[in-house]
Amino acid sequence: MAVASAPGKLILFGEHFVVYGLPAIATAIDSRTTANVRRADEYALVDDRPETPGYKKEKLAQQKDSVQRILRAMNLAGANVRITLGGELVAASGVGASGASCSAIAAALNEEFGLRLDREKINAVAYEGEKGYHGTPSGIDNSCSTFGGFIWFEKDLMSGLGEIRSLDMKIPMTIVMGNTGVTSNTTEVVEEVRKEREKNPEKFGGIFEDYRRIAEEAREVLEMKDLNSIGRLMNRNHELLRRIGLSSPDLEKLVEIALGNGAMGAKLTGTGRGGLMIALVDDETKDKVASAMEKAGYDSKITTIGAEGVQIEKEP
Ligand code: MEV
User: Fold this and answer.
1) Which CATH number fits domain 173-305: 3.40.640.10, 3.30.70.890, 3.40.1380.10, 3.30.2010.10?
2) Is 48 a catalytic residue?
3) What is the number of the ligand 1 atom nearest to the C-alpha of 269?
4) Separation of 238 CA from ligand 1 center, angstroms?
5) pTM of the entire structure?
6) Architecture of the CATH domain 2-170
7) Of the listed 41, 65, 141, 299, which one is catalytic?
8) Each residue of 285-312: pLDDT tens digit?
9) b/e per residue, 231-262, with b = 16+ CB within 10 A?
């Protein structure tokens, strides 16, 4: 038997833009998914992860496809293994639940079958798994779960490969996540954005240019550990995402609550139209922001970011 764990992720800057080759910045969070792999008489997949109600049912067909893709990519198609998913990461839109599970499954299979794949290869397998969830993933989610920390990610549109650079961020940063409770379909939303862009190339061209400046500046202020500027840039990134129709009334409400209670910045994260909102906070504001969200009827969670990537866990 082998057990691996991988962290969830948050996109700090650049969801959707990353699909078009623009750079994005993501970070691993301190909640993880575990994959326990044991040989069995027949193949089985058991999903014991906590979830936003309805998430696992909604994603079940995609999950089955994803695991088969992972097994094929590792030359293990038809293997009789029992894969059990667990851990404390709540499966929800926006938190990289699928990327974390793909990375953890790939690492646990690698360990159990003694395949000796390095981290890059585990990431490549996890990327194949991500394709089961959304046909044309940028690869940022699985890369963040696999490598951990803070990553700067740029997809090369010609080769389809992602360039991943670790950002050297040593300051602890705290985020409050607010959950709309709505599960978004990444494939559908990415496709709708693509169609919108085809209809409005000029509007999108301008937004992409604005975003590129935000990403460059974000990298600088992250490295300078300037939290107020990071927050200000998160607000600007959210505004661009709102202009391309990715926000929702719940997300707007969560942003308003966060900023109204002292957060330095707030934005939707991941697919949008539901899923999560993230707010950058400090020790003085984190509890106030989180409890204001709870009071308004949203689940919230305080998380520190920059966690370790995928790792093998000791057998219990
Ligand atoms: C989903 O977490 C992030 C998107 O940018 C899609 C992707 O990068 O594949 C919306």
Assistant:
1) 3.30.70.890
2) no
3) 2
4) 15
5) 0.95
6) 2-Layer Sandwich (3.30)
7) 141
8) 999 999 999 999 999 999 999 999 999 9
9) bbbbbbbbebbbebebbbebbebbbebbbebe
